[in-house]
Design goal:
The chain is mainly α and 450 residues long. The chain has 18 helices and 2 strands. It has helices at residues 13-24, 27-39, 43-71, 75-82, 90-121, 130-141, 145-164, 166-193, 199-206, 215-229, 235-240, 249-277, 288-298, 303-337, 341-361, 376-403, 406-414, 424-446, and strands spanning 370-371, 374-375. It has a two-stranded antiparallel ribbon. Strand 1 (370-371) and strand 2 form a beta hairpin. Helix 3 (43-71) packs across helix 4, helix 7 crosses helix 8 and helix 7 runs antiparallel to helix 15 (341-361). It starts with 12 loop residues before the first helix and ends with a helix. Bound molecules: 4-fluoro-L-phenylalanine (PFF). 4-fluoro-L-phenylalanine (PFF) binds at residues 23-24, 26-29, 102, 227-228, 230, 233, 235, 321, 324-325.
């Protein structure tokens, strides 16, 4: 086992929280959460999502960080280290597959945000009606070359930062930019909720109607809890391996989960009142943020400036997430195949970018290419988010709950008895019993078996 001192590490508690929150907070909160909330009918979906976060997301997150720090390895190597000669490491393969799939479509949407920075800078939205702004989005993602150009640009940036390593790359960028995003989101919320007709958006968000809740929606809520918290594919195992031993992991997990959930809810509050005020369809799909927010900015003083800043920060939020996804694969190649960090990063970026091209074309020349009623992009998202991530989460909670000795978990969480672990019993109960049963039940329900 490599000792802590030999490994790169985060400089302190804030560095880790910023990087892990940077991983968690991204397109999932601001682009995906509002759009799937719209597709699945609003508030009832949000309630199920919040239950998933609390009962499943939180214990799985703590399990991941604990395993990573205990093993001093990334998602794949950790299982090999803590349970040598057992098949647990297969879960690491699932994580790597999920990382590939997620980053391939994530890079596409992140590329859209970069195009939107340019659009906002050149005043492309000014004086346009909501319908025209909607048509502009459809026209853009339907093209072949331009979205791919931005996807390649974004993936190159991700590659560049991952090559730089933990302290110089990931941590430095996350620390400064995340708080700025939060401030601008507050401004947006304030404007959106004071628009004429905003009340209906509130009703949509906060007045639950469980009759609208399909079994598919419940599975999507679970999948999104994993996606949004960056769980189930070893990201936080990897990041956990870089946390110093004297940090208390329980409170860290609570902070990250809370920050991620607050940002998603703020994004919902910024978007839905405006959706209703402008007469946009709540179930508009992946374009929801890209169509709604430029309209809100038009109604704000200094709107064009804020619009540029917002899409820029959204691209940065996507970047702090995409580097964590790429890091999963890179850490695996570096640790388990002894490939150099630079080679591993460049090759992985190339392969994932190529795989992302059909995702990008799903809204244009490949839009008729459907499988089980959905396009390539949606299928990749569905398989990774709703299956691979929850399965990875199931494995890690079973591993901590049943495979690791209680005394080892306690030793890791308390740093050999020097930190308080009053939450240990409840954590182990959630990891051992509640999370595995809940994940299994949602799967069976989502597949219409129960
Ligand atoms: N949590 C990120 C988001 O909400 O945008 C996406 C993500 C990052 C998913 C890392 C999974 C992951 F391992």
């Amino acid at each position: 086992m490599t000792s802590v001192s030999q490994r790169d590490s985060f400089t302190g508690k804030y560095g880790f929280i910023a990087a892990a929150a940077g991983s968690a907070i991204g397109l999932g909160n601001i682009w995906k959460f509002p759009y799937i909330t719209g597709v699945y009918g609003g508030s009832a979906f949000i309630i199920v999502y919040l239950i998933c976060i609390l009962l499943i997301g939180l214990p799985v997150m703590l399990s991941e960080i604990t395993v990573g720090r205990r093993a001093q390895k990334g998602g794949f190597g950790a299982y090999k280290n803590l349970a040598p000669g057992t098949p647990w490491f297969f879960s690491g393969y699932m994580g790597i597959a999920a990382a590939f799939l997620i980053l391939s479509f994530y890079g596409v949407v992140a590329g859209w945000t970069m195009e939107y920075v340019v659009k906002a800078l050149t005043g492309a939205f000014s004086g346009k009606t909501p319908d025209e702004i909607g048509a502009m989005f459809g026209g853009f993602i339907g093209q072949t070359a331009k979205p791919i150009f931005w996807q390649i640009g974004f993936m190159s940036l991700t590659c560049f930062i991952v090559i730089a390593g933990i302290k110089n790359g990931i941590e430095r960028y996350s620390k400064i930019l995340m708080p700025v995003l939060l401030v601008i989101l507050f401004f947006l919320c304030a404007r959106s909720v004071t628009l004429d007709g905003a009340a209906k958006g509130f009703e949509f968000l906060f007045k639950p109607d469980f009759s609208k809740l399909s079994s598919e929606a419940v599975l999507a809520a679970l999948g999104h809890a994993f996606f949004s918290l960056s769980l189930g594919m070893g990201t936080l195992v990897t990041y956990g391996s870089y946390v110093k031993k004297n940090e208390s992991l329980g409170p860290l997990a609570v902070h990250i989960t809370t920050a991620d959930t607050i940002i998603a809810l703020l994004a919902g509050i910024a978007i839905f009142p405006a959706v209703f005020a402008f007469g946009i369809e709540p179930a508009a799909g992946p374009g929801l943020v890209f169509v709604t927010l430029p309209n809100v900015f038009q109604q704000m003083p200094f709107g064009s400036f804020f619009c540029v800043l917002f899409f820029f920060l959204l691209a940065i939020a996507a970047l702090t997430s995409s580097i964590s996804i790429l890091e999963v694969v890179v850490t695996h190649l570096v640790e388990d195949f002894r490939v150099s960090r630079k080679t591993a990063t460049i090759v992985t970026t190339l392969v994932i970018t190529l795989f992302g091209i059909p995702c990008s074309l799903s809204f244009g020349v490949m839009s008729e290419f459907k499988f089980l009623g959905a396009n390539f992009f949606d299928n990749v998202d569905h398989i990774a988010s709703n299956f691979l991530l929850p399965l990875g989460g199931l494995c890690i909670s079973l591993f901590v709950g049943w495979k690791m000795a209680r005394k080892d978990v306690e030793d890791e969480l308390s740093n050999g008895g020097t930190l308080g672990t009053g939450y240990l019993t409840i954590f182990l109960f959630l990891a051992k019993i509640v999370a595995p049963i809940a994940i299994t039940a949602v799967f069976l329900h989502g597949l219409n078996i129960i």
